[in-house]
Design goal:
By secondary structure, this protein is mainly alpha-helical. It has a single domain, classed as Four Helix Bundle (Hemerythrin (Met), subunit A) (Up-down Bundle), CATH 1.20.120. The protein has seven helices and two strands. A two-stranded antiparallel ribbon has the order 1-2. A hairpin with a 6-residue loop joins strand 1 and strand 2. The protein is globular. About 25% of the residues are buried.
Length: about 180
């Protein structure tokens, strides 16, 4: 009798655990979170007086990378999420001006852009990744599947995390992904 009782208790939950995810492809892309978390932690840990640092004159500064990420996140996630970003007059300033904003402002804006992207991911499913989306200025638009911008977003985060992790190492710092327990 005891094996029967255990089987009736555990069998239904084990069956649920084996059922496939509803959106396995989009769910796998939601893993971008660790790059976003690492990026925020990296920019948070870099001292404010190092936001002008760039390894070589032709490279981007720490502050420039932070403002670039914020803008790219909003642009890419607005496309695949289907909801436009609300902009302010500050958003139209030159990138070189935004790169010199205070560290706290840059980190807060980066964090807000990642929250916007998290919400954009909630609007997509495996079934709408192939939906075509039109981008570009009037007269020069192009059409691509929504999935293209999901992939661009995730790879952009990975690319810039690698970049900022290398900057941190040159500054004698340990990147978040290399900290013990990560």
């Amino acid at each position: 009798m005891r094996p029967f009782i255990l089987a009736t208790i555990f069998f239904p939950s084990s069956m649920l655990a084996q059922q496939p995810a509803t959106n396995p492809i989009t769910d796998s892309f939601k893993g971008f979170g660790f790059y976003g978390n690492w990026l925020v932690a990296a920019f948070d840990s870099i001292p404010a007086n190092q936001y002008g640092f760039k390894p070589m004159p032709v490279q981007q500064s720490v502050g420039y990378i932070a403002q670039h990420l914020e803008d790219a996140n909003y642009q890419l996630c607005a496309i695949f999420g289907g909801v436009p970003r609300t902009t302010t007059a500050k958003d139209s300033l030159a990138d070189t001006v935004k790169a010199r904003w205070p560290k706290d402002t840059l980190v807060a804006r980066l964090r807000a852009s990642l929250l916007f992207c998290r919400d954009a991911f909630e609007r997509i499913t495996d079934s709408n990744l192939g939906d075509l989306t039109t981008v570009g200025p009037p007269g020069a638009t192009r059409t691509f599947p929504r999935a293209r911008y999901v992939i661009l977003f995730v790879t952009d985060l990975a690319d810039h995390y690698s970049q900022i992790a290398n900057y941190m190492r040159q500054l004698g710092m340990v990147p978040p992904s290399a900290l013990p327990g990560r």
